Amino acid sequence: MDAVHPTMATKVSCGWIKKGVGKPIEQTASRTRVNGIGAIELKSMNVFSEFAETVNSQTVLTFFDALKAAYPQAPKIHGVLDQSGYHTSQALKDGAISRGIELHDLPPYSPNLNPIERLWKVMNEHARNNVFFKSASQFKDSIQDFFKVNIPKIRLSLFSRINDNFQTLRTAPSG
Q: How high is the pLDDT of residue 169?
């Protein structure tokens, strides 16, 4: 699980421009962003997400409550978290324990180990890449539609892009 904070700014990811010809790219001066919190169940590729005005320890705890309600039969929920400040607070750790959620911390500076980071990449591909948003509401709708409309349609394709198959590199034996 993790939080995501996409901005309304035009995100150019690819395109063709004829050599020697300028290509204006529409930009916005808006600083609008969406704050989302999401969790992904790797066995089924079910995604659970919520949106908030801001993301902090309290909104993550509120997310935990909603996650528990979405999985009432789960004896325990495991959350894999990065080292952001609101993930490492004592209030969050205590709140997770009281909700029956076991937290697992990723090593610092290792977003590549959190599978949901790849979901954020897919979100950008479907909702933001190469798109100029004329209004904040159009931008917010695009992000929310990704979670409500697109994920159910592309869920099966996520298995090949999002997984927890990692190799551990070991130091060669000396001597």
A: 67
